[in-house]
Design a protein that fits this description.
It contains eleven helices and twelve strands. It has 325 residues and is α/β, with parallel strands linked by helices. It has two domains: 35-140 and 286-314, Response regulator (Rossmann fold, 3-Layer(aba) Sandwich), CATH 3.40.50; 142-284, Rossmann fold (3-Layer(aba) Sandwich). The strands form three sheets. The protein has a six-stranded parallel beta sheet, with helices on both faces. Strands 7-6-8-9 form a four-stranded parallel beta sheet, with helices on both faces. Strands 10-12 form a two-stranded antiparallel sheet.
């Protein structure tokens, strides 16, 4: 009789333990299901890039559920994607805008939906950021992009004056003409040469797309028109710089000997090209610092706390002696 009673008690205890385990798992599942959802809206497909991968990793480690979409450099597509994420009631969006000129429309859309957002890499207009106090920008000061590019040229042996005629003949290949970042970059690199006591001669500023094909074509066209009158090519991003380098190689010229080429972005692939002497330099993002800042701002916004409109994380010039080998 005692054994039978003992068995019943053991079975009861085992049953209670099982119910506790089921309840614990259910609570954990529910808690996980209630974690804030963050949508990362990229201008082009860079889900495997160091920046995007690290950003997703840090957000997920902090407990957020993260989804990524890419607009493939199509602003109408990005606007549609943002609308879909709003309809799905995402808690916060991280947006790398295709065109900063429409950031005001995006800000209004987000304000109406009461969804906070963080813009990265390409800074929206000041007016757009001021439309709503739940919007922030995290990135490098855009004014410094071109300045650092110019400083990279000043650090070379001839400071960009390869033919020794007393001027630095510059070609600028960058993004769309209405892109604020492209405009500031074009101004900054020329100003840096002037401040460095060199005499810049802007041969041309070529506006195009933020793409390899655009960089390749615009550079090839410029080389056929201006030839070796060009001493320095400033590129609006690393992708354009890679396209320009391809055009230079196809034309039988050599970077460093015939002309200098400077990119912007500091991707690992481009740093390898810099280390190999196929590009003069690039301006790199502080990826670790930017991701930490995005996470910190996201936590503030999701907690309903006040956040600044702008958070700047320093970028840095990268020459061959410090590039990834």
């Amino acid at each position: 009789m005692k054994d039978e009673k003992k068995t019943r008690l053991l079975l009861l205890a085992a049953g209670l333990l099982f119910l506790c385990l089921v309840l614990a798992v259910s609570l954990a599942f529910c808690a996980g299901g209630n974690k804030p959802r963050i949508g990362i809206c990229l201008r082009q497909n860079q889900e495997q890039s160091e920046y995007t991968s690290l950003l997703k990793e840090q957000l997920q480690e902090a407990g957020y559920r993260v989804s990524t979409v890419s607009a493939e450099n199509d602003q109408s597509r990005q606007t549609e994607q943002i609308g879909e994420l709003i309809e799905k009631e995402y808690d916060l969006l991280v947006i790398e805008p295709v065109m900063v000129g429409v950031s005001g429309e995006l800000a209004q859309q987000l304000q109406q939906a009461q969804i906070p957002a963080i813009f990265i890499n390409y800074k929206p207009d000041e007016a757009a950021l001021e439309l709503w106090d739940r919007l922030s920008y995290v990135g490098c000061q855009e004014e410094l992009h071109g300045v650092f590019q110019g400083e990279l040229v000043l650090e070379t042996a001839k400071k960009g004056d390869l033919n020794g005629d007393g001027t630095v003949s510059c070609l600028i290949i960058t993004g769309p003409e209405d892109d604020r970042r492209a405009q500031l970059q074009a101004q900054g690199c020329i100003q840096a040469l002037t401040d460095g006591n060199m005499n810049p001669d802007p041969v041309a500023t070529l506006w195009g797309a933020w793409s390899l094909e655009s960089g390749r074509k615009l550079c090839a066209d410029a080389l056929s028109q201006y030839g070796k009158d060009i001493e320095v090519i400033f590129c609006g991003n690393d992708t354009i710089a890679q396209g320009a380098a391809e055009a230079i190689g196809a034309g039988g010229w050599n970077v460093g000997k015939d002309l200098l080429v400077v990119g912007l972005g500091g991707t690992e692939e481009v740093q390898e090209l810099v280390a190999a002497g196929q590009l003069t330099g690039t301006v790199a993002q502080d990826i670790q610092g930017q991701c930490r800042q995005v996470l910190a701002v996201a936590e503030r916004l999701l907690a309903g706390e006040e956040a600044e409109n702008e958070y700047y994380v320093n970028c840095k010039p990268v020459a061959a002696d410090v590039a990834t080998p």
